[in-house]
Design a protein that fits this description.
Layout (H helix, E strand, L loop, with lengths): L35 E3 L4 H4 L3 H7 E4 L3 E4 L4 E11 L4 E10 L1 H11 L9 E6 L14 E5 L12 E4 L3 H8 L1 E2 L1 H4 L22
Parallel strand pairs: 1-5, 4-9
Antiparallel strand pairs: 2-3, 3-4, 4-5, 5-6, 6-7, 7-8
Length: 199
Amino acid sequence: MAIWRRKHKTDGTAHQQHDVSPCPCCGTPLDVSEPRFNFALPQPVAGLSEAEYEQHVKLVNDAIVVTDNLGGFARALLPIGLEDGRTATMGVWVSVEGNVFDHIVRIGKGELDFDEMQFDGRLANELDPWGDKILARPVSAGVHIPTNGRRSMPHIKSSPDALLTRVLTQRWAAAEVLTGAMAWALDYDPQAPRVPHRH
């Protein structure tokens, strides 16, 4: 589901009743036992005015964002362990240098083996409960290898930053992480049968 919209931090007030959010692809309920969320845009891009967005943003898809003033961004999955035993997976954006972005594009075009989808950059989204404290912190991301030819989304694996290392390795209260439009995933019953969501 898309969390970020231009000019808005979240679009979450409609979810105050914690209704289970439908999958944007197929319309079936998402799985609260494996909560997954995608941020539609990197934070710097989401903060652009409409005019700035139209002028500077050249490409947006599920894997990359291209701008002529803020650089390039690549999607990566950030796993956050929750105290109730679940892992919330956040589809965040990573700001990368030009040569790194070119490397990612070459892999996407099939010019390089997908196992080489490993890159460093800086986190380009705020997340609760840390807010802007984790924005622009360095991260290392990549696919799990060997991929055996299968394409998958890179995961954020580590960070030299102490705070992000804590985010990746510790468990956090679900109510502090799953805020706004993500609050539907708070209605979790560990005894209920799982309904895995797959395409």
